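Lab channel / #folding
Pinned by the channel admin:
"Please post every new chain as: sequence first, then the structure tokens as a reply. Keep commentary short and put observations after the output so the thread stays searchable."

First post following the new format, from NK:
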Amino acid sequence: MPIHRVFDFTDVSDSEFDLIDEAVMRSAYATQNRFGRLFDERVYENNMAARLRAEGFEVHTQVPMTVTYNSFKKKYYLDLVVNQVLYELKVVSALLDEHKAQVLNYAMLQDIRRAKLINFGETRVRGQLLRNAVSQDRRHHPILRNLGWRSLTPQCESLLAHLRSIIKDWGTHLSCQLYNEAILHFLGGEAHCLQRVEILADGVPLGSHRVQMLAPNFAFAVTCLTSNQAHYDNHLETLLAHTSLEAIQWINLNHSQIELKTRCRSPADGKGITAME
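Reply from TO:
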């Protein structure tokens, strides 16, 4: 995978991690005791970095990392790296699944076993260790599940071709936003694909809604749902019923399974499971 890093991580042992993490969490508690829980993340980050450097740790902040594929580039910044251990800082009322997904995305991109979230926004500093337990082999050999996909336009074939190439290069389990941004890029970019469609109810215009267009009257959606796919499918049907769209091509990246479905105004036929090449 083309990842451009300032430095390469080296996985530390469990005992080494415990010693580093004890010092990091001690620093986090001291930082919140001094600054409370209302400041921006960078304040806590800089104070922790100063405390840890004073204790002799090797500390890097806002470490750049760039993910590329052909002409697509996406840059991330890692909040805090202490002696090869990655920490992501938050100032939120509660940690959400999206925060955990962000950290696991970083861990997989760096191919490291663990990373940790630290939240300063709660009454007491909260840390949550996240483990990257998905092997590179598993990430690069997903199963493609055809749940009723139909190539209705030439652009549908192009969409699938880009998806296959990206997955072959990057693997699965990364950020849904990363996959979606890459696909948008190769289909012409946001300016070309993102369009507003009129919403109608009983022939009465109610407003407009932004969708990702694949071709005239054909939209596409990229999700990373691991449950409640039927619920989302029902909402796609509702969207179709209130627009002039003919179909929505739906790609769901369900961990090691890639689920493909064409949602038309009338149900599409054809189901099957095949290995993704």
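NK: DSSP finds eight helices and 13 strands in the chain.
TO: also worth noting, The two ends are 17 Å apart (CA to CA).
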